[in-house]
Amino acid sequence: MRAFLFPGQGSQKVGMGRELAEASATAREVFGEVDEALSENLARLMFEGPEDELTLTANAQPAIMAHSLAVVRVLEKDFGVKLADKGNCVAGHSLGEYSAICATGGFTLEEAAKLLRLRGTAMQDAVPVGEGAMCALLGADLDKAEALAKAAAEGQVCEVANDNDPGQVVLSGHASAIDRAIALTKDHGIKRGIKLPVSAPFHSSLMQPAADAMAGALERTPPRALSLPLYANVTASIESDPPRIRHLLVEQVTGRVRWRESVLAMHDAGVGDFVELGGKVLGPMVGRTAGEAKTTSVVTMDDIEALAKEIG
Question: Which domain holds residue 261?
């Protein structure tokens, strides 16, 4: 069985998608559609930077989705390899869930771009800059991370945001609580804590204003039926009912990204082949979680040709 995976924030970099756009008119169409949806030249920002502008949440989220969907469209239109024919399920890490839904027909490209622009802006605006932070805990399992978060909170928000793999958990919350968590890592048997270069405490209860904004947006633009079932971030289980998926997308803004559990659930269901479309960040996480599973990252035209030859 095969799962198609879609990366989240942090996978953006200047130059993303440029080689693909030069090689394929189909990819150029995708970037053009996204530019039109947002009434700006996001593709130029992706291709040329500057990096600090691309990294802004409101830009990074639609950019990462656009890159993933360009890979999907080239695979399907230029090589005749349909995800629905070659896969058994999809999953996306945080914003990647929107890419997964778009790739399986739940959102149009225009809808996904507009929703992610709104999501990025709402998440950025939910907490004043400097008041929130996130840190990655290396050498931490979920139990250790939860104990550390509880110890560091001291009446503030300090919560597990991402359970990425057996050795990496991300905390999110008030900046001072995150600083305390980093200082306490050794006391909790954790190798180290690294503050992440993000401007807001994603996937924590501090994101409630952004969740409220997305509830309204998704009521106006609800997902449609998907061509493949989705393993959702907040349940780590298979979902296919559009109203349920809409609810989970709202919950996801403040909820934990249960990525490790999602990978294990897919693997336990028989998935042995994980294909990441548009990034190279999820494959290593899958490898550390389900060691014997096969992982493939598809980013360039060469990657797409190789995948099409293998599964087409």
Answer: 2-126+206-311
